[in-house]
């Protein structure tokens, strides 16, 4: 938890809601001793692939298919941005497991909105539709160069370094 009085400039991206994930070693050093990797991608509507192979319009899917959201740190911001753009979804619940959510989508039980990077490369089961408003998520990883982060944190940093910056 970050107290409002703490002066840690590297946390500004989190305070401004510019990032969904922030990985920090302890103790945090000043900006000159920080390695910062940033990555972002856009959210897309994910539905079961239409058998007629004709893409369905966004508004048609919203009216006919139940929406199950992915429970994650950015879900409230995602929903508020959709509401501000007057996008109405028939919200039927939420799941935290992406694999389970994608399985339900593939079976035609629901649709969801996910960051595009979470859709498997062999996405022949899914139809990905751009949202009427561009909504992105950003991940910032802030660490001391050469710090002893956990194996999981180091793996995230290595994966992010291999991805193209900005999407």
From TrEMBL:
This is LysR substrate-binding domain-containing protein. It comes from the Bacteria. It holds the Pfam family LysR_substrate. One of its GO terms (biological process) is regulation of DNA-templated transcription. InterPro entries: HTH-type_LysR_regulators, LysR_subst-bd. Gene3D superfamilies: Periplasmic binding protein-like II (3.40.190.10). GO terms for cellular component: cytosol. Residues 11-162 form the LysR substrate-binding domain.
């Amino acid at each position: 938890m970050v107290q409002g009085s703490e002066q840690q400039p590297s946390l500004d991206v989190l305070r401004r809601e510019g990032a969904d994930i922030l990985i920090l070693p302890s103790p945090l050093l000043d900006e000159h001793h920080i390695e910062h990797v940033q990555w972002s991608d856009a959210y897309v509507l994910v539905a079961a692939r239409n058998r007629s192979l004709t893409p369905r319009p966004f508004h048609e899917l919203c009216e006919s298919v139940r929406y199950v959201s992915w429970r994650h740190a950015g879900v409230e911001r995602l929903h508020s941005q959709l509401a501000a753009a007057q996008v109405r979804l028939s919200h039927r619940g939420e799941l935290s497991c992406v694999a389970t959510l994608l399985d339900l989508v593939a079976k035609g039980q629901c649709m969801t909105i996910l960051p595009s990077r979470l859709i498997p490369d062999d996405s022949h089961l899914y139809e990905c539709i751009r949202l009427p408003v561009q909504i992105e998520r950003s991940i910032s990883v802030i660490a001391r160069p050469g710090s002893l982060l956990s194996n999981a944190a180091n793996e995230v940093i290595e994966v992010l370094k291999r991805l193209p910056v900005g999407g």
